[in-house]
Amino acid sequence: MTTKEINEVAEWIEGLGYPQYKDCFVSNFIDWDKLKIINSATLPQLGIQKFNHIQDITKHIRERFDLQQPDAKRSIAEVPYTTH
């Protein structure tokens, strides 16, 4: 983790149209490696609360690192029912 990388991520967030979140990323020392593991569950912990902002930022993170989008249709409640 370097200050340069943290500032690069902050500039990237600003470039997405979210300058109000630069400080959230800088104060939490988010560099490129940490950004890879940021998701919709961790963004609120950084201070990002607006749902549409969370969706958009996580979409851009997935695109930047070529990560798969989670399957929204998948549910832990849909466990196969079997009888023995």
SSE order = HHHHH
Outline type: globular
Give the uncertain stretches in residue-range form.
none
Counting DSSP E segments of at least 2 residues, the number of strands comes to 0
| Class from secondary-structure proportions | mainly alpha
Number of helices: 5
Instruction: Characterize the largest beta sheet: strand count, sense, and whether it forms a barrel.
Output: none
Q: State Rg.
A: 16 Å
Measured as a percent range, the helix fraction is 40-55%
* Strand residue content: under 5%
Cα(first) to Cα(last) distance is 53 Å
Mean pLDDT: 89
Characterize the structure shown.
This protein is an all-alpha fold and 84 residues long. 50% of the residues lie in helices and 0% in strands. It contains five helices and no strands.
Give a quick rundown of the structure.
The chain is mainly α and 84 residues long.
Write the layout of secondary structure elements.
Layout: H1 3-15, H2 22-27, H3 32-35, H4 43-46, H5 51-65
List keywords for this structure.
single chain; 84 residues; mainly alpha
